Amino acid sequence: MTLVDATTPATLPETATTPLGGPTLPQERRLVTSIPGPASRALTLRKNQAVSAGVGVTLPVYAVAAGGAVIVDVDGNSLIDLGSGIAVTGVGNSAPAVVAAVSAQLAQFTHTCFSVVPYDSYIDVAEALNRLTPGDHEKRSALFNSGAEAVENAVKIARHFTGKQAVVAFDHAYHGRTNLTMGLTAKNQPYKNGFGPFAPEVYRVPTSYPYRDGGLSGAEAARRTISQIEKQIGADNLAAVIIEPIQGEGGFIVPAAGFLPALVDWCRAHNVVFIADEVQTGFARTGDLFACEHEGIVPDLICTAKGIAGGLPLSAVTGRADIMDAPQGGGLGGTYGGNPLACVAALATIATYESENLVGRARQIGAIITASLTAIDDPRIGEVRGRGAMMALELIDPATGEPDAALTGRVLASAHAQGVLLLGCGTYGNVIRLLPPLSITDALLREALQVLAEVLAAS
Ligand SMILES: *Cc1c(COP(=O)(O)O)cnc(C)c1O
């Protein structure tokens, strides 16, 4: 990295005065002010006067450009991005194919509303999703704007198809911030506190969390879950089971092998729709195109969003044709769902995942991260876990094994100060997650991992 005197307020370096995004940005960590710098601090003052306090910020530097795996801020600092805007920019920020596709579409038309006057790029995206998602059965897709909206619609569709109402969600689940998805989400702070009442007919059951459930096998954890469902809800009342194949906000929790397949089998035997929420795990992130593929499970419905469109807002529900075709015409949709700019961005993004073999790249990234993190000899690391380019560290007090959220906060703050954007997560606030763009170079990734090791040692 370049380290210009971090104590002197900024004079913007050449590259930051007219920064171009995309891969033209130098892929480097460069600190020219303290983090946040003076221009960002001034913007925070304005934010606090203009933006609702309910809209939180992880790292209060203000972006002016981003490309590949770096974000350049208003003070001219270049940060290594290990968050990808929460697993969104898998193909890199302002990926050239996405920029070209969206620019061309902008000049053609920006909006007609697919439910008013349709266009073919929406169909192209649906065909791509039907082709790429697990299972070779006949499928249909519907497009929306956000992950939460996809989840809401998956539940609507499952209820309509089964004629049943109850929905099962899991401990540590995260499904979004709308009313129904808040209800499905497990964690009170900050997602639910003060925002009730929540939607009825949502039931919470235990998940498989090998590090914290005494190492229950997948089969044992599934038996516990299914027994609770049968005793407390009953399959006759249950429309859907929704689960993240690797839980994201909950702490990158990878269930024990066999847990997910047992749930799928039970759902199939009881006319319960199995919904995989792959909003965070989807699109090459875990080293498979979809995380369900790891154990060969085939969900009835799959929700996708984040990594789907290179940063443009798009989400989808894809699944069995008989389920997806159950709702009446006009029952699904929305003004912006499947907006043409987002659709062409998705097509370019999906083509990039395939042509650049980003599934393979995610596995390489996972191997580099795993080697680096497991080489750290520190008893405060309770577990290194994850899959592909979705990896995490769970930090504990080694004396008690209890989660150490305070340490986690210190490590994140120090990494940010050193120009490495890392995110926290976890029900207990003690997990550091790594979600680099799949376009990150080995050199930049190794530099960021080195910083993480150093700030952990010093925290
Ligand atoms: C982010 C996320 C959501 C919500 O997506 P939004 O686009 O923020 O509404 C839902 N499910 C999972 C697993 C997520 O990670």
Tally of domains: 2
- The total strand number stands at 17
* SSE class: alpha/beta
Distance between the termini: 22 Å
Quote the CATH topology of the largest domain: Aspartate Aminotransferase, domain 2
Heteromolecules bound = pyridoxal-5'-phosphate
* Poorly predicted residue ranges: 5-18
Shape: globular
How much strand content do the residues show? 15-25%
Instruction: Sketch the major β-sheet.
Output: 7 strands, mixed
Number of helices: 14
Please characterize this protein's 3D structure:
This protein is of the alpha/beta class and 459 residues long. It has two domains: 194 residues, Aspartate Aminotransferase, domain 1; 257 residues, Type I PLP-dependent aspartate aminotransferase-like (Major domain) (Aspartate Aminotransferase, domain 2), CATH 3.40.640.10. The chain is 35% helix and 16% strand. The protein is built from 14 helices and 17 strands. β13 and β14 form a beta hairpin. The longest helix is centred in the last third of the chain and has 17 residues. The site of pyridoxal-5'-phosphate has 13 residues, from α6. Its EC number is 2.6.1.19, 2.6.1.22. Belongs to the class-III pyridoxal-phosphate-dependent aminotransferase family. This is (S)-3-amino-2-methylpropionate transaminase. It catalyses: 4-aminobutanoate + 2-oxoglutarate = succinate semialdehyde + L-glutamate; (S)-3-amino-2-methylpropanoate + 2-oxoglutarate = 2-methyl-3-oxopropanoate + L-glutamate.
